[in-house]
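Hi Y.,

Following your request, here is the sequence exactly as I used it, all 277 residues.
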Amino acid sequence: MSETRSTSVPFMKMHGLGNDFVVIDARDRSVDVTPALAVGIADRHRGVGFDQLTVISESDAGDAHLTFYNADGSTAGACGNATRCIARHLLNQTGTSALTLTTERGTLYAKDAGEGLTSVNMGHPQLSWDEIPLAEEMDTLELPIEGAPSATGMGNPHCTFFVEDAEAISLDQFGPRYEHHPLYPQRTNVQVASLVGPDHIRMRVWERGVGLTLASGSSSCATAVAAARRGLTGRKVRIDLDGGTLWIDWAEDGVWMTGATAHVFDGHFTADWLASL
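Below is the corresponding structure, written out as tokens. Let me know if you'd prefer a different format.
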């Protein structure tokens, strides 16, 4: 039995606009996170429940390294809202106003935006078909799919549909249909978005490996980029999600995302429960 399964393991529960996370700080102890462990923790009846599990570890190139797991046990290269939540936790912990975090996506910069808000630079969007990635070469602005969605990479793949009314779409049916579309060999996050005013978007999300979520930071960044590329908005937009509002700024140095976070509670996974997985 691994050390993880034979001892209790502390964790934090956080959320960004209802996009919820279990966070394990592995900087001071070794934690063996397997797909089975991630799935067990994700179970909202027998575990804790989350949209993503995030593990904090030491980084030689930043203040900390983040690894993300989806509710189905698969990994994700990026998770914007979890990054903001952990950035806020580390900013409070260290008393600093800015820090760097390393991820599979690359090095991300975070800062205190004032009034309890946290900003993270999610890096430059990936706009070429092979970076996203798509199955074959094509124009990523309008895919050859009904509805002509846009494809964008933010360290994970996205498929954004611009529709008349985002709230009228049955995402529990619409989302799975496109998450597994053959153009996306690694599956994709699916967004439906509608314009509600100048530089103001209403968006809903079906998240790859998770399902319907109240918010998604990387999806918000991808939608803002797609809207600007299509000439629907400028490069600074407000995005209203089911769980609240994010402000996205596609700047020269990358896509900045700003919003609220919450550290809900701390707990421990017991050794007996871990051993049962």
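The radius of gyration is 18 Å.

Thanks again,
Q.
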